[in-house]
Amino acid sequence: MPSENIILIPFKELKEMLLGILKKHGFSEIKAKKLAEVFSRSSLDGIYSHGVNRFSRFIHTVKMGYVEKDQEPTLIYSFGVMEQWNGNRAPGILNALSMMDRAIESAKRSGIGCIGLRNTNHWMRGGTYGWQAAEKGMIGICFTNTKPNMVPWGGSEVRIGNNPLIIAIPRKKGHVVLDMALSQFSFGKIQEYALKHQQLPFPGGLDEQGNLTRNPEIILKNEKTIPIGFWKGSGLSFVLDLLAALISGGDSSSTIAGFADEYGLSQVFVAIQPGFLTDQERDHLIDEAVNYVKTVSGFSEGEGTYYPGEKTRKTRDLNLKRGIPVNTDIWEEIKKL
Q1: I need a surface site. Which of 6, 39, 139, 205 has the fewest CB within 10 A?
Q2: Is the domain of 161 the same as that of 266?
Q3: Other C-beta atoms within 10 Å of 321: how many?
Q4: Helix, strand or coil, per DSSP, at residue 85
Q5: Based on the domain organization, do 140 and 199 belong to the same domain?
Q6: Could you tell me if 137 and 267 lie in one domain?
Q7: Is 97 helix (H, G, I), strand (E, B) or coil?
Q8: Do 153 and 58 have their domain in common?
Q9: How far is CA 211 from CA 206, 220, 321, in A?
Q10: Exposed/middle/buried for 63, CB within 10 Å: 0-12, 13-18, 19+?
Q11: Residues with catalytic annotation?
Q12: Alpha carbon 140 to chain centroid distance?
């Protein structure tokens, strides 16, 4: 059950509220509907940190001019299955939806499509574009760089981004969708724990003395998150940043660090035809792998294992029935918009 500082908002009501605010701030009907849908669905799926919790921040970036609401992405370069696009600092969600569609269309023709997007904005929940590909029957891979917000292994200052990575695999019984930032916890998730006045379940960053801490408020203040797998996550973050900049022809985190806010990002979107297997053969292969993992006993009573994306569907069904949990302070902040 929700706590006293949480209210349950029906999905339709939430979406209509966000739609009205977006239109009030100058977005066209078409753009406002797409944005409201993505923000609302992110919270519907339990990704509150990049759904309704991030909405006021998005409106702020529009007001500041970091997000150009009337801009559209433009094609720069095309060669075979690869394209480069300039996002022109248009809304990151709209740019990302469009670029994954481009990758999917290329994959339909040639088996694979790879799109590099530069000069774009925060795409909010990266998993949105993995689910987008999977719903079209495609394997989807996408990643983005960010402003520096993570300490590289062996360092004490932020120099690398948490650079989210998404890999989606279509499946009839439920798509497999990995959506992960390369920090131990995304900043949005850390904010969730701070709003609940709870400690993180595991250390997620460094305190003022450079020690590991589970205190979300300290990490939010310092902006010193730690990478997953320590040196391994640090290395993966670095190469994803380089790939995003090289494939898109855009900026790396080292340049983005000098911007006034987190904008001008570089992203990559890949769509792949699942291969020469039939749908039945492919699903049988995936089901075998899923069942093998899920039949292991849990390390604590009553818990088991989940494949990536499984809990998302369960949360989606629950929130559709009962309403979406929204922090009361955040809801009041949104209503003031």
Answers
A1: 6
A2: yes
A3: 8
A4: strand
A5: no
A6: yes
A7: helix
A8: no
A9: 5, 15, 43
A10: exposed
A11: 50
A12: 13
φ, ψ of residue 256 in degrees (nearest 5)? -60, -25
CATH code for the domain in which residue 326 is found: 1.10.1530.10
For β-strands 324-327 and 212-213, DSSP reports them as unpaired
Q: Which residues pair with 192 in a beta bridge?
A: none
Residues 152 and 270 occupy one common structural domain: yes
Residue 106 near residue 112 (C-beta atoms within 8 A): yes
Question: 115 has which bridge partners?
Answer: 83, 269
Instruction: Please identify every stretch of the chain with a pLDDT value under 50, giving residue numbers as ranges.
Output: 1
Could you give the CA distance from residue 275 to residue 253 in angstroms, rounded to a whole number? Answer: 34
What CA–CA distance (Å, rounded) separates 96 from 28? Answer: 18
Q: DSSP for 122-133?
A: --S-THHHHHHH
The rounded distance, in Å, linking the Cα atoms of 254 and 147 is 8
Three-state secondary-structure class, residue 9: strand
DSSP-derived secondary structure letter, 160: B
Q: How far is it, in rounded angstroms, from Cα 174 to Cα 309?
A: 8
Strands of the sheet with 165-169, listed across from one edge? 74-79, 82-86, 112-121, 263-272, 139-144, 165-169, 176-180
DSSP code of residue 152: P
pLDDT of residue 1: 42
> 202 lies in which domain range?
184-226
DSSP β-ladder status, 263-272 and 112-121:
antiparallel
pTM for this one?
A: 0.93
Question: How many CB atoms within 10 Å of residue 275?
Answer: 10
CA distances from 187 to 133, 216, 222, 305, 308 (A): 25, 9, 11, 25, 20
Ranges of beta strands (E only) in the chain are 6-9, 74-79, 82-86, 112-121, 139-144, 165-169, 176-180, 205-206, 212-213, 263-272, 324-327
Instruction: Look at residue 300 in the predicted model and tell me its pLDDT.
Output: 60
Alpha-carbon Rg for the chain, nearest whole angstrom, is 20
99 and 80 within one domain: yes
In this predicted structure, what is the pLDDT of residue 302?
58
pLDDT in tens, 199-239: 999 999 989 888 899 999 999 998 889 999 999 999 999 99
